[in-house]
From TrEMBL:
GO terms for biological process: gluconeogenesis; glucose 6-phosphate metabolic process. Residues 53-187 form the Phosphatidic acid phosphatase type 2/haloperoxidase domain. GO terms for cellular component: endoplasmic reticulum membrane. It is a multi-pass membrane protein. Its EC number is 3.1.3.9. Belongs to the glucose-6-phosphatase family. This is Glucose-6-phosphatase. Keywords: Endoplasmic reticulum, Gluconeogenesis, Hydrolase, Membrane, Transmembrane, Transmembrane helix. The active site is at residues 114, 167. Gene3D superfamilies: Phosphatidic acid phosphatase type 2/haloperoxidase (1.20.144.10). It is found in: Endoplasmic reticulum membrane. The keyword Transmembrane helix applies.
Length: 340
């Protein structure tokens, strides 16, 4: 693997040198590919266009990110920003690369979570859009446009991860392929209309199984699963770039919280609110602002258990805001206005 890692570092160097003037663009692209964006950006936008597609996006995002966490614990992938120093392969010739504020993620590197979740989630979006366009126009060429944009997005997200030294090229390729397969499989198994107990069991089951795997790997096999966190802290250029919300357990609590929240939302209002297009657009705008502020809520990082509990609650709230609270308020006020 050392040869693969070394070639990946030189590729990152060439990418930084040849496209260094596009740094802001790469940082925007990597933020769009962040798994968190699937919950906070893609989900609300998709939901107010198509309820089924929106539920599918949240479902696929949670399951694919959970599987990515499991794969990372098992595969032990390195990350470029720490491997450069740890490998001692560049003693004579240091690569001319630098880190960014989004570089220092603390989980293992393989496969790329950005690539995997993006591939899975956006497959739901583009397949729905492609089917819609084909049903309306009967044009295969027009229906193929979303799939072409899908490929472009995956390439852009993958290159952005290599550019910022968060992943090696083979990790983003593995993540993209795995996410693509998951997107196809999971998009046909959307839990619409399922009872609350189903989501409760899924949420608790994912949490317990991940914790059991963590305990088994550490205590039974003697594997130190905090190795990546230690290396990230050691080799990150700035201490403030190490954030607890990039830690593996943050992903786990986000996924479990979002799934439980989805179940609660469908329990409170089965089928959601039926709104015309104008109120839907208003709901999307208000939901986006609400999620922006929910995401910005500062959480105490000590003790860590409290952080994870609050992080879990934060993502339980996300589906409530999008499916129940905001559309309900918009329906209330627009309905009154019509009566008057």
């Amino acid at each position: 693997m050392e040869a693969v890692y070394t070639h990946g570092i030189w590729m990152a160097e060439r990418l930084q040198q040849s496209t260094g003037n596009q740094e802001k663009m790469w940082l925007v692209v990597t933020h769009i590919g962040d798994p968190k964006a699937a919950f906070l950006l893609v989900f609300p936008f998709t939901y107010f266009v198509s309820k089924r597609a929106g539920v599918a996006v949240l479902w696929v995002a949670a399951i694919s990110e959970w599987l990515n966490l499991v794969f990372k614990w098992i595969l032990f992938g390195e990350r470029p920003f720490w491997w450069i120093g740890e490998s001692r392969q560049f003693v004579n010739k240091q690569p001319k690369v630098h880190q960014f504020s989004s570089t220092c993620e603390t989980g293992p590197g393989s496969p790329s979570g950005h690539a995997m979740v993006t591939a899975a989630v956006w497959w739901v979006v583009v397949s729905s859009l492609g089917s819609f366009l084909h049903s309306r126009t009967r044009s295969v060429l027009l229906a193929a446009v979303p799939y072409l944009l899908y490929v472009v997005m995956l390439v852009a997200v993958g290159l952005s991860r290599v550019f910022i030294l968060a992943h090696f090229p083979h990790q983003v390729v593995a993540g993209s392929i795995t996410g693509f397969i998951l997107g196809i499989i999971l998009s046909h198994r959307v839990p619409e209309g399922r009872p609350l107990v189903f989501f409760f069991k899924i949420s608790v089951g994912l949490l317990i199984s991940a914790l059991a795997l963590h305990v088994g790997l550490q205590q039974q096999l003697g594997i130190n699963l905090s190795w990546s966190i230690q290396l990230a802290k050691k080799w990150c250029s700035r201490a403030e770039w190490i954030r607890l919300d990039t830690a593996p357990f943050s992903s786990l609590t986000r996924d479990c919280g979002a799934l439980l929240g989805l179940g609660l939302a469908q329990y409170w209002k089965p089928g959601g609110w039926s709104l015309p297009w104008a109120p839907r657009a208003l709901s999307l705008a208000i939901s986006s602002m609400g999620l922006y502020h929910v995401n910005r809520l500062p959480l105490p990082i000590r003790p860590q258990a409290l952080f994870y509990v609050l992080f879990f609650i934060k993502f339980v709230i996300v589906p409530q805001l999008v499916i129940i609270f905001v559309p309900g308020l918009v329906h209330l006020f627009t309905h009154k206005k019509k009566k008057e």
